[in-house]
Amino acid sequence: MCRIATHGATRGRNEPPNVNKSITWLTPDGDREWFPPLDQALDEPEGLLAAGGDLSPARLLAAYRRGIFPWYSAGQPVLWWSPNPREVLAPAEFRCSRSLSKTLRNRGFAVTFDCDFAGVVAACAQAREHSAGTWITPEMQAAYCELHRTGRAHSVEVRLDGVLVGGLYGVLMGRVFFGESMFSRERDASKVALAQLVERAIVAKLQLIDCQLPTAHLRSLGSKPMSRGEFGALVAKETAGLDVPLFSAS
């Protein structure tokens, strides 16, 4: 069982490096810009770095700038993660299959950007067939809707005959888009959302789309693993400047 240390407390100075790692407890009223170094993340469960704190915009943005994201279930404290490796997608390496190209041309999907952020988040939060619950708690939904109001979180909506059938949402910082979740109620609808995001990303010169964790779905579209160290360094560099105009044309 891992130990939980409070930010500011002494933690095992005589312990050998990378042995008996502990996670840091973040207090809600503490420094929202502070997180422990990424190399303190646990090996089991892989990537767990800290717990506690809050989902304020300041803390969320500080986390993303360091390559950290929140992921927890109802009844748990906020858990902060930095998995190694990290799953990423370079826009230029997106794989648009022949069948997806046909879908984009002929299926009749209508794609919009930032037109129904709350609707996309709510759809992503609904329990899936293969899952007993959802990690997108009401508190998470409220936190990301607040980020959307501040212009940091964005959505892609896919409609068929006027009905929302797919989409995705995430956080844009500099030249990195941190994907949070996607959903699909019609075949290939989430792929269409990602394909349209990638199309804009290439024009806007977005450097990277963070996919967080690998799935067969994402791998089929061109995602790949990147080491935690490389990802953290790249994110620090690419989030330092102004946001690219990824959604400004919506």
What is shown here, in short?
The protein is 28% helix and 25% strand. It is of the alpha+beta class.
Key descriptive features of the protein:
globular, single chain, 250 residues, alpha+beta, 2 domains, Alpha-Beta Plaits, 5-stranded mixed beta sheet, disordered N terminus, Aminopeptidase, 12 strands
How would you explain this protein's 3D organization?
- The chain is α+β, with helices and mostly antiparallel strands and 250 residues long.
- It has helices at residues 57-65, 98-106, 117-125, 138-149, 189-204, 216-220, 228-238, and strands at 3-6, 22-26, 48-52, 69-70, 79-81, 86-89, 110-113, 153-160, 163-173, 176-184, 208-212, 224-226.
- A hairpin with a 2-residue loop joins strand 9 and strand 10 (176-184).
- Helix 3 runs antiparallel to helix 4.
- Residues 1-18 have low confidence and may be disordered.
Please tell me the total number of domains: 2
**What shape does the CA trace take?**
globular
Q: How is the main sheet built? A: 7 strands, mixed
Strand order of the largest sheet: 7-8-9-10-11-6-12
Helical content class: 25-40%
The CATH C-level name of the largest domain is Alpha Beta
Q: Could you say what the CATH topology of the largest domain is called?
A: Aminopeptidase
Q: Give the DSSP E fraction (strand runs of 2 or more residues).
A: 25-35%
The DSSP helix count reads 7
| Unreliable residue stretches | 1-18
CATH superfamily label of the largest domain = Leucyl/phenylalanyl-tRNA-protein transferase, C-terminal domain
CATH architecture annotation name of the largest domain: 3-Layer(aba) Sandwich
